[in-house]
Amino acid sequence: MAVSSSSLPPLCEKISHKRYVRRAVDLTILGLLLSLLLYRILHMSQNDNVWIVAFLCESFFSFIWLLITCIKWSPAEYKAYPDRLDERVHDLPSVDMFVPTADPVREPPILVVNTVLSLLAVNYPANKIACYVSDDGCSPLTYFSLKEASKFAKIWVPFCKKYNVKVRAPFRYFLNPPDASEDSEFSKDWEMTKREYEKLCQKVEDATVDSHWLGADDDFEAFTNTKRTDHSTIVKVLWENKGGVGDEKEVPHFVYISREKRPNYLHHYKAGAMNFLVRVSGLMTNAPYMLNVDCDMYANDADVVRQAMCVFLQKSTTSNHCAFVQYPQAFYDGNPGELTVLQLYIGGGIAGIQGSIYAGSGCFLTRRVMYGLSLDDLEDDGSLSSVGTRKFVGEKSLEREFGNSKEMAKSVVDALQRKANFQNSLTESLEMAKEVGQCQYEHQTSWGKTIGWLYDSTSEDINTSYGIHSRGWTSSFISPDPPAFLGCIPPGGPDAMLQQRRWGTGMLEVLCNKQSPLIGMFHQKIRFRQRLAYLYLEIWALRSIPELFYCLLPAYCLLHDSTLFPKGPLLGIVVTLVGMHCLYTLWEFTSLGFSVTSWYGSQSFWRIKATCCWLFSILDVALKLLGISKTVFIVTKKTMPATMSRSESGSSQGEEDTGGPDSDSGKFEFDSSPYFMPGTFIMLVNLAGLASFLEPFVDEGSASQLRPSVWNSFFNTHDSPPPQTLDDVVSWVITNSFSPRKKFICSILFQAVVYVLWRERNARLHSSNPKGSQALVKEIQLLIRAKLAGLDRLNLSMPGTSEPSYLHTWFAFFQL
Ligand SMILES: O=c1ccn([C@@H]2O[C@H](COP(=O)(O)OP(=O)(O)O[C@H]3O[C@H](CO)[C@@H](O)[C@H](O)[C@H]3O)[C@@H](O)[C@H]2O)c(=O)[nH]1
Ligand SMILES: [Mn+2]
């Protein structure tokens, strides 16, 4: 590749922001937090345990805010000018594109097909790209769908290039009818292509319900008698771009692979799949750059590859040692506000330090860096130094590090020495490719330890990213509009919880493994603030403990006549702090075009994930450290959207409340998942505290009669009559919070908690009001009995317990 004289305008620019107002707000919040802590310290002696617990929690929150302030201080991003690429670079470098998929049910093949088609059709010479799909599900259906897709690609790719189609994932493109002003040739082509795409969808759908094609075609022989956890390596060339010159009608190389799986081997989930992809592509095309996307993340902009190349090929960034270019993850469904804001503010901040963190999808990486190269191994001009040569290129070290395939070793040396790609035939490499996919291939090599995607965390992205930055490399962050890649994210409910739990677990695993930012303080080349950024992410799960305690404190105070925020300066600080934080985060949301509802949804989501999912993450990692169980990667469920609500370009990140089917997104259904239990517990204890607080307002004589005026002063109940009894209170809150099924469990739990806590409180009140409190206890007992009696009719089943014994346990536990 030739990059001509530097007098021409640059291919990309680094834009650094100095956001003085934001810095001032960050510092003010930090100042308020510190004064809160100081006040607590000064008044420690006059106060009780609540004070100490509150102090500990607030110290943790302050520490997190300190990290956030450091991270956000000097945000930066890159802006690429792909239009300038052609006049500056005469021979574009090759790119290998990797799409891992793992489960044909949770990841519908048609979604994978769309992702692949969008990649095959990018604006880049077809002979310079290759697309590899790794299938951890070993699914003939996925293979069949991809095979059909490779046929459709011969129509789709030339169509996109001929008419310069913007969004090259067909399911998205065909949502909008063609412009009436377009010429008839276009309309004809459009109709024909759409028909072909519909045929493809139909074939995939038919194949899903009926597997007649399996036996009919020899090509599927490799899939006979296979199980997803027990099969040999499968490598199939779906399409080879033989003798391609890169013209517009060509389709790039397209390869399907599925690594060997055996029940007793650890397969390392996505990281293992990625390493196999690196090896196979090394043997087949050995491109110096690699793109990694999740199987649901289609390229939303045809220029993605060219944009990334602008960053890699710009002289100033080359000398800056840019290891990868990361695009933010964007979503076409779910409730994307939350992640978008996080990526832009926190992600943008990190990008201004040593560079963006690798986020697992939408990232272009350099092959050499993934082979474990560090900055010391290179000369100034980028060639391998003598140290690097000794470390990597010896025959013995190659075998030890990269495994015992001679061809693999040769391809590694070529990649490290930046030798031009060899153009041998893909089918010639099939046997070699199968060899490097065997279970024992990585045994006693450095794959997953220092080379490729790193193992020992379910967040292989953060883990691998830390490895790269700790070797001194930098990275770049580009956030174009429209977004470069779009995927899906679970809108809420157990699927979102599962994903959050996995992320929390994975990041905490990194904190505890040898990649931890807490170790190697002096011999690693990672910058201090970058280290803090990783620390911030990796302690996400740990937050659940202070969050949980902090949420329980108000109820505890109500029950024990204690105060969390006594009137006076402390209350002032807290009110200002909460108010400021709310306004600040609200502003972050609205300035990116998101609605107030979306902000509110995100705030509640934070509380839910912090108190619920991340608690499970801590448990996961504790069990792993104790050697009791291993952490697992459960694939997130992805769905093909029936209709798309946004405009074709997807340029606007804003959203409107249409009141349509999507208007529920972001709301959490309380569902049969255990994830919600900690959160429910918090709510119940707080309700119990509140109920207990209301107790003095209960009318003499009738223990359960609440004064309506008291109720009204607490809850504004315009549309429903104010609850009259304790039972009403319980039902009101529960009806307003949860779905019918869980509401029921909830009400039982609630009453149990109320009962236990009130018993304690009544014991204390006994002397002052013996008659009233005893009546109250009776009343509650009756309520619980009544609820439990109703339970038979509601068919409540808990996993592993039959109903009666479950009921019985409840009775026994509460001595009823
Ligand atoms: O055993 C496995 C498990 C997963 N995958 C693939 O990994 C990708 C990511 O999995 P997904 O379930 O979509 O996870 P998400 O939580 O949506 O993904 C984010 O978080 C993951 C780490 O937890 C990263 O791997 C992803 O790149 C990142 O986008 C998908 O394409 C899967 O097919 C495999 O190939 N093999
Ligand atoms: Mn995903």
Automatic annotation (TrEMBL):
The record's listing under InterPro entries reads: Cellulose_synth (IPR005150), Nucleotide-diphossugar_trans (IPR029044)
Region annotated Disordered sits at: 644-665
A GO cellular component annotation here is: endomembrane system
Q: Where are the transmembrane segments?
A: 24-43, 49-71
- Can you cite a GO biological process for this protein? cell wall organization
Q: How does it sit in the membrane?
A: Multi-pass membrane protein
Which residues does Mn(2+) bind?
K270, D294
Entry-linked PANTHER family: X-BOX TRANSCRIPTION FACTOR-RELATED (PTHR13301)
User: Would you tell me the protein name for this molecule?
Assistant: Glycosyltransferase 2-like domain-containing protein
